[in-house]
Amino acid sequence: MSEITYSLNKINFTIMKNIIYTTVLSIILCFSLNAQQKSENFYYYKGEKIYLQQRTDKIHVKFAPNANRNQIRSQIGNDSLSSAAIKLYKENPEVVSANFMLEYNGVLQGLTDEFVVKLKETTSYRQLEELALKNYCIIGEENEFVKNQFMMHVPKISHLNAMQMSNLFYETELFDYSAPNFVVVNAFLSNDPYFKDQWGLKNTGQYGGISGMDINVEQIN
Fold it and tell me: Which of left, alpha, beta for 136 (phi over 0: left; psi -120 to 50: alpha)?
């Protein structure tokens, strides 16, 4: 997978598979999270709530594949970090989603417009369609390796973000799981116990390969 990372002052953005993911950084101090914010920032994993901390000094913006890069640079340079700034991003037709970034165990995670659902054996595709229509969601592609697992997309007109929407779907009890699709910043800090085995991300010659023959994920910043 080819990947290009740009650095612009305190702004980093990455082009990956023709989708531009942008992390806007600022020196603005984090504000204290109130109890309501904390209660909203979670998703379900194996039936348990996984809580994340919302960062108010970082915004993750996902741009459309055909977004104009010069306009992106211009807009990023003029924006402050606030709910109003996120609203302005969403009003841009080239922006797919914009949210404050989240943090879990010290690892930054950008929330996109996507979440993944897996239908229970007793749930029909028609039920998925009805739920998606009711909540203005778009049903994406089915996973070619996992039957009845679908990528869902949350449009900007929704009053819920992808994490909140995935929780709404999960709480219907129609799905084996429903979880948001995150972009992880500094993936080498992942708590994934199998990271050391993923030679494509970091090749140390662990399986007899050539050390360094990887995508240099740890050097992306």
Answer: left
Query: 45, 8 in Cβ contact below 8 A?
Result: no
Identify the CA nearest to 174 among candidates 120, 117, 137. 120
Average pLDDT, consecutive stretches of 10 residues, N- to C-terminus, the chain (221 residues): 36 45 42 48 95 91 85 65 84 90 91 97 98 97 96 94 97 98 71 66 74 63 43
- The domain limits of the chain are 3-40+52-110
Angstrom distances, CA of residue 70 to CA of 22, 38, 74: 14, 36, 6
Measuring CA to CA, which residue among 176, 44, 166 is closest to residue 120? 176
Structure token pair of residue 177: 């799981």
pTM: 0.69
- Asked if 60 and 54 touch (Cβ cutoff 8 Å), the reply is no
Yes or no: say if 45 and 88 are a contact pair by the CB < 8 Å rule.
Answer: no
